[in-house]
Amino acid sequence: MSGGSEDNSARVSGPVTGGSKGWAFGGPTTDLTALGYRQDEYFLEGEAVRYGPRAGTELGRNGRWEVEPVVRSPYKTRLVVVRPTDPAAFNGTVVVLWNNVSAGYENFGGGDSPEVYEGGFAYVAVSVQRVGIHGQPDNPQGLQQWDPERYASLSIPSDDYSFDIYTQAANVVAPDRHHDALDPMGGLEVRRLVAQGASQSAARLASYLNGVQPITRRFDAFFLVMYFGGGTPLEVGESVMTIREAAADASQPRIPEGLHLLRDDLDIPILVLNTECEATSCYGVRQPDSDRFRYWEVAGASHVSLPAMASSSPRMERDFGFSIPLDETMQGINHVSVAPVVDAALHLLQAWMTGGTPPPIQPRIAFDGEPAQIDRDEHGIARGGIRLPQVEVPLAHNSALQQAPDIFARLVGYHESFPVEKLCELYGDRDTYLARYEEATRAAAAASIVLPRDVDPLLAEAEATFPL
Question: In degrees, to the nearest 5, what angle opens at C-alpha 298 toward C-alphas 352 and 396?
Fold first, then answer.
């Protein structure tokens, strides 16, 4: 695919080493060498443009936005490249991650997963938003505060330039990159770029898809994870956008929810993967599946889960020296991990881009009432949707039901174990439960919502968690 940005003169330097910490913030804690991978950090600098709606147009609900460059400004940022060391192991696809900054520091929001390494992907995590580098005034956790020796030279004027910075980062790892310059991909033959982002970053990518992708034609597919149904404004200055319950006051910009469609006229694959939490926001802008669009919803899952928090603990301990204790008080958080579904989706997206059939159409979560609410069974579990075995053969209620008015409660959902008497009523004995769970797990694999390699770990989870 042809591509570019308003300015192709971005300069790459590195690999970056040193600093007071001695490592790149936010990188994987996985033993990359054992997997045949390596990690390198690079700096990228140049001039980026910010976009605005083309004169006489608006960023409307249909998603077919017309934008134009407004003004340009210098920037300097970083990208973390994780790639196979053996060219023969590379599948030709680079996943370009839009780093998430909702927490006030950078979270790659993907990349470090079994499918990336076993599937032969490379990924590039890009710092494109101001707060990731400069931090927030009241709680500075940006790169400059974390390691001033390593990152002091970095600068992003405002998030308004993030879209073009993202394009320029993609340019230096793309199939048509300049091989005579410093090559962050180490000479690998890149054939495809996937734009991936989660949560706030998914909202950013929605705006990129709707307005900037028609100009750059830079990406070969878009993968939006936990998307609330609206693209962010193109111009927000230095503000950090957040979802509704986190906004301190009415003047703080908020991530739109259920506001925009994703444009469907660019002839590239688009896959959106949501939990119950985002499905409610997206209900009013659900789009039909087509030969270039798939929309998946995972029942019983929430924006943040206990397994996701546990998986982030090693990185937090390395980078911050502590992690959130997952003690008894945290056990009310949703326990259903969507990581196997994300891996399955990425696997199918690769096949889709390389001439295969689109991923299977999956059932969507059932809604009813006015205003529409998720339809739930006698256990309070959502009906319909993608059903992992923990939801299809439950030991507990898991949902995105919010238990308190704060933002944390909205994102982490709810978990409540069934009493032993209820388990006896549902399953009778351990063998019956395990047989039904195995049946549901193999059905999930047959439906392509989990990969074959995840079957045994899921079965082992059932063995370990059944209390009778």
Answer: 145
